[in-house]
Design a protein that fits this description.
mainly alpha
């Protein structure tokens, strides 16, 4: 019985350590809310095609799912191994971008539906925007040519930002998520459609992101040691909700370039 209790205690410690390490990795790449905002602004310069704007927004957030893949992979292997295999590798590679575009282009030909090609083009443009934003604004390396044996790109390798700057940027993420929820609600009211049932859930999400944003302002000011752990627990559901809401709001986001 004592042995079983010790094993259970050790498993709990291992699980907590796993969550802590996973959240630390997450803090090195989280920008999905900002990517969504930047993705939408491309409507000013991208010629109109059906579904291309919602696809760009979706694609601009999509590469950040690598943290979820790292979490799943770590259940079957060491966290460090999972990070090396999946973190900012295949989801941030030009080759994946090309594959996505070709996949939808072929699907478009098979289905005789040009909209699929527009979706593929939009996701590819969104992913490219994500790569550029990560390279410039996130002070970390990115494996743009994975799986080739070439060193990752890191234009900030000679400078590491202080912790308060990192925490401030991470806190702004939740404001961006909050803005994105409000923006989707606004689009649904402007263009009601069969998917507008999601407005109620978007309102709940918006309010939650407001409180999370205020919480993280407090945590940033007080420089708490467990900032990254709390951030990880808040960020992953926010990312999943942002991706799902984009897909569910595809009709509301469908609009010609103004």
């Amino acid at each position: 019985m004592i042995g079983l209790k010790n094993n259970f205690a050790n498993s709990n410690i291992t699980y907590v350590n796993f969550l802590h390490q996973l959240c630390i990795k997450l803090n090195k790449m989280a920008q999905a809310g900002l990517h969504a905002i930047i993705g939408y602004q491309t409507k000013r310069i991208i010629p109109y095609e059906k579904r291309i704007i919602p696809a760009i927004i979706f694609g601009s957030m999509l590469p950040d799912i690598d943290i979820i893949v790292v979490g799943i992979g770590s259940l079957f292997n060491n966290l460090m191994v999972a990070e090396k295999l999946f973190h900012r590798t295949f989801t941030h590679s030009f080759f994946t971008l090309i594959f996505v575009y070709l996949f939808f282009a072929i699907l478009s030909e098979l289905k005789k539906n040009p909209t699929f090609k527009s979706v593929g083009k939009g996701i590819a443009i969104g992913m490219l925007i994500h790569y550029l934003t990560d390279s410039i604004l996130w002070f970390n390396k990115i494996d743009l040519l994975w799986p080739l044996p070439i060193n990752p790109i890191d234009i900030w390798n000679s400078w590491s930002p202080p912790k308060p700057i990192i925490h401030a940027l991470l806190t702004i993420e939740f404001f961006c998520f909050r803005w994105y929820a409000w923006f989707l609600i606004k689009k649904h009211y402007e263009k009601p459609n069969k998917h507008s049932w999601i407005i109620m859930h978007l309102n709940i999400w918006k309010n939650l992101e407001t409180w999370i944003f205020l919480l993280f302002i407090f945590l940033t000011i007080w420089e708490v040691s467990w900032f990254k752990l709390v951030f990880g627990f808040a960020y992953i559901p926010s990312l999943i909700m942002a991706l799902f809401s984009t897909y569910a709001s595809r009709d509301a986001l469908e609009c010609k370039t103004e």
